[in-house]
Amino acid sequence: MFRTSTIALLLASSAVSLLAACGDDGDDHGAHELEVITTVILTFTPDGGGAPIVAEFDDPDGDGGDPPVVDPIRLAADTTYAVTVGFENRLENPPEDIGAEVRDEGDEHQVFFTGTAVDGPASDQPAAPLAHAYADVDAEGLPIGLASEVTTQAGTGQLTITLRHLPPINGAATKTAELAAQVRDGGFAAIGGETDAQVTFDVTVAAP
């Protein structure tokens, strides 16, 4: 299990990040080993074949060092892409795959797609260039968000990826089927849990 400890970086350009450790407080609220997320990787694979498009938010030297590097996302219009989200700690050698831990603890985590570039369960933007749908579930049948699908139309905007840790409180689950709708209607203040990572990418979708 891994416990949350947030590092905030406010950037003047395209990204706002909260890169964090993650953990399961459970009911005892005891201390757990800390882990850090330095890198968020998005991979867009076009339906029907074609080379994947990869965009990264990368802060390999951690908080307080050099500014993170944020790749722009450039996609083709009128295309469906399978999207995977990866999380790594590149302060370790070899890099530590935090996404694998998120998957293992999927009943306590959810990745949200929000921002002006997204229309989907957590973002009400009908004219946005990306129409988002979840493509994976946890043991309870609730979305995790490490795998998704987007369908594109021409346009620009920003995509914010948020990894939320949702441990149970007093034995009651805080991850529910309503979370994405609650974020859509009221933002992250409307739900429980803690933000483990939050990064923003600039998105451009144009005719192929």
Gist of the model:
This protein is mainly beta. The protein has one domain.
Structural notes for this entry:
- The protein is mainly beta and about 210 residues long.
- The chain has one domain (about 5-205).
- The chain contains two helices and 14 strands; from the N terminus they run E-E-E-E-E-E-E-E-H-E-E-E-E-E-H-E.
- It has helices spanning about 100-105, 180-185; strands at about 5-10, 15-20, 40-45, 55-60, 70, 75, 80-90, 95, 110-115, 120, 130-135, 145-150, 155-165, 195-205.
- The longest helix is centred in the last third of the chain and has 8 residues, at about 180-185.
- It starts with a strand and ends with a strand.
Give the tags.
disordered N terminus; 2 helices; 14 strands; globular; 6-stranded mixed beta sheet; 8-stranded mixed beta sheet; mainly beta
Overall mean pLDDT stands at 86
Shape: globular
How much helicity do the residues have? Answer: under 10%
Percent of residues in β-strands:
35-45%
Number of strand segments: 14
Layout of helices and strands, plus pairs?
Blueprint: E1 5-10, E2 16-21, E3 39-46, E4 53-58, E5 69-70, E6 73-76, E7 80-89, E8 96-97, H1 98-104, E9 109-114, E10 118-119, E11 130-134, E12 147-152, E13 155-165, H2 179-186, E14 194-206
Parallel strand pairs: 6-14, 10-11
Antiparallel strand pairs: 1-2, 2-14, 3-4, 3-7, 4-5, 7-8, 7-12, 9-13, 11-12, 13-14
